[in-house]
Write a structure and sequence with these properties.
6-stranded mixed sheet
Length: 452
C-alpha cells in the first residue's frame, strides 16, 4: 500500500464484513509479526472492519522493541511509551478461520497516524523487496517448511507422550492420524495448499510443506499455518512447540525456506547452461545468498536458542557451502524429478528456524540475491559430501552475537532494510543476548519452548 484511500478502504471493509457475517464470522484477528518473531494481535468485531480498514487500529510503537519473552529492549529509535501506530488489515488476505468458528484473520500493514508507512513494517519490507524484483523483470516463488513438536497437554515436557515409533515411521503417523487429517483439512479450508505432511526425525515431531507462492503471501501462509497448527493441536489435547531446540540433546525444529527466481513463466533455476541447469542469473542470485549467509543468520536464526540447533552433522547447514540435493549444506539446490524441473527447481535455505519473522526472511533473501545479481557473483564449487568432513569448511556464526556483527558489516542488507529497522533489529538481538545469553541450555530450552 503506497497511500491510503480511506473512503475506498471503508467501502471495501464494509463489503468484506457483509460476506463475513453471512459466513457466521463475528470477530477478526489482525496480526503483525514483531522483530523477535512473535505474532502480535489486535481483534475487532466484524461490524468495525470498515473502520479498521480505513482508519486502522491503534498499537504502540514499543512493539518494535519487544523480545520473545515480552521484555522490552532499549534502542536507538525507541520512543518508550510515547507514540501510536495504526494497524490496517490487508483485505485481500482476509480469511475465515476454519478451526475457530466465528473468527476471521487478516495480516496488517502498519502506518503512523498521518497515513505514512511505518519504516519498521516487516510486511511492507517484504512487499518492497518483491516490488524491486518486479522492477528488474523478475518474480520469486517462495514457501516455508513448518516443523513442530507435539506433546500431550498434560505432559508438556515430553514429546514421547504424544507419539511413539521410529523417526519418519508410519507408527508415528497412525498414532495421530485423526489430528493430522483435521489439520490438513482445516488448512485447505483456509486456502492453504498442503503438498505433504509427515512425521519427522525427533520424538513427537512433524513437518508440513505448502505450495510456493508470492513472497508476501508465503510469509502470510507461514503465520496462518503455524497458528492453525497451534489451535488444532489444542483441540486434540496436544501442545505444539516450534522452538529451534525443544531439549538440549534433541533434534531441533527448522524453518527451511524454498525460493526460486522466475522471469515471467520461466524458472531461472532450471534449463540454463550453468551447473545443474542453473541460468547465469539464478546462479548469481544463489551466490548472493550464499555469500551473505553469516549476516542472514541474524534474520533467519535470530534467537539465542537458534544456535543450539545449528550443530554439524544434523542436517541444519552450519558450514558455508552449497550442493545439489545436499541436505547438510545450508544452501541446497533442489532439482526435482526429470520432466518437472522447469517447475520444481529451487534453492532451499536450511539454516533458518521458526523464531524468525517470515516477512523479514523473504525480504532479506531477495535483497541478498539481488545483490548477487548486481555484482555478477558466482557460486563456488558445489559440495557433494557432508561439508563438515572437509578440512577447509568455513563454519557459519556459532552465536547470535557473531551473526549480529556480520549483519551490521553487510552494506547490502543494512541499506535495503533502512537505517531505522536495521538498527532496531540488532538492538532487539542484543536485548535477547542480555536477557537469555547466559542461560544454560536446559533453562534456555524451558524458557523458549512455547513462545513462538
Amino acid at each position: 500500500m503506497s497511500q491510503l484511500d480511506r473512503a475506498e478502504l471503508a467501502q471495501q471493509g464494509a463489503l468484506r464484513a457483509d460476506g463475513l457475517r453471512a459466513a457466521g464470522v463475528e470477530l477478526v484477528a489482525l496480526t503483525f509479526v514483531d522483530n523477535s518473531g512473535i505474532a502480535r494481535v489486535k481483534a475487532v468485531p466484524v461490524d468495525r472492519l470498515w473502520s479498521a480498514a480505513a482508519w486502522g487500529v491503534g498499537a504502540s510503537n514499543s512493539f518494535d522493541f519487544f523480545l520473545a519473552t515480552d521484555d522490552i529492549a532499549d534502542g536507538t529509535h525507541s520512543r518508550g511509551p510515547v507514540g501510536d501506530l495504526r494497524l490496517h488489515p490487508d483485505l485481500d488476505a482476509l480469511v475465515p478461520l476454519a478451526a475457530q468458528p466465528g473468527w476471521a484473520w487478516a495480516p496488517v500493514w502498519r502506518y503512523d497516524q498521518e497515513g505514512v508507512p511505518h519504516p519498521q513494517d516487516a510486511r511492507a519490507l517484504a512487499a518492497a523487496a518483491t516490488a524491486r524484483l518486479a522492477e528488474l523483470g523478475y518474480n520469486a516463488r517462495t514457501a516455508f517448511e513448518i516443523e513442530w513438536v507435539v506433546t500431550a497437554a498434560d505432559a508438556p515436557g515430553d514429546p514421547r507422550s504424544a507419539t511413539a515409533g521410529p523417526a519418519y515411521g508410519y507408527a508415528r503417523l497412525s498414532s495421530q492420524a485423526r489430528y493430522l487429517r483435521t489439520l490438513v483439512s482445516t488448512l485447505a479450508a483456509q486456502g492453504v495448499a498442503v503438498e505433504q505432511i509427515h512425521p519427522e526425525y525427533a520424538a513427537g515431531q512433524f513437518e508440513v510443506s505448502v505450495a510456493a507462492g508470492d513472497p508476501v503471501r508465503a510469509a502470510d501462509v507461514a503465520v496462518l499455518t503455524r497458528e492453525t497448527i497451534r489451535t488444532v493441536s489444542e483441540q486434540h489435547g496436544l501442545r505444539a512447540s516450534f522452538t529451534p531446540k525443544f531439549a538440549p540433546d534433541g533434534v531441533g525444529n527448522g524453518g527451511h525456506v524454498h525460493l526460486s527466481l522466475w522471469d515471467g513463466d520461466r524458472n531461472l533455476c532450471a534449463g540454463g547452461d550453468r551447473r545443474f541447469g542453473l541460468t547465469e542469473t539464478a546462479e548469481a542470485f544463489g551466490a548472493g545468498i550464499l555469500s551473505r549467509l553469516p549476516a542472514l543468520l541474524a534474520i533467519g536464526a535470530p534467537s539465542v536458542i537458534s544456535y543450539l540447533r545449528l550443530e554439524p552433522h544434523h542436517w541444519a547447514g552450519v558450514f558455508r557451502a552449497w550442493g545439489l540435493e545436499n541436505r547438510e549444506a545450508p544452501l541446497r539446490l533442489v532439482q526435482g524429478p526429470a520432466g518437472q524441473r522447469d517447475r520444481a527447481a529451487n534453492f532451499e535455505v536450511k539454516c533458518f528456524d521458526l523464531t524468525a519473522n517470515p516477512y523479514l526472511v523473504v525480504a532479506a533473501l531477495i535483497f541478498a540475491g539481488l545483490a548477487g545479481v548486481a555484482g555478477r557473483e558466482s557460486l563456488p564449487e558445489p559440495v557433494d559430501v557432508d561439508p563438515g568432513t572437509l578440512p577447509s569448511a568455513e563454519r557459519l556464526p556459532v552465536s547470535l552475537a557473531e551473526a549480529v556483527a556480520a549483519f551490521e558489516a553487510d552494506p547490502a542488507l543494512t541499506s535495503a532494510f533502512g537505517a531505522e529497522l536495521a538498527t532496531t533489529l540488532m538492538d532487539v538481538r542484543r536485548g535477547e543476548l542480555d536477557r537469555l545469553g547466559a542461560l544454560p541450555p536446559e533453562e534456555l530450552c524451558a524458557v523458549m519452548r512455547y513462545l513462538h
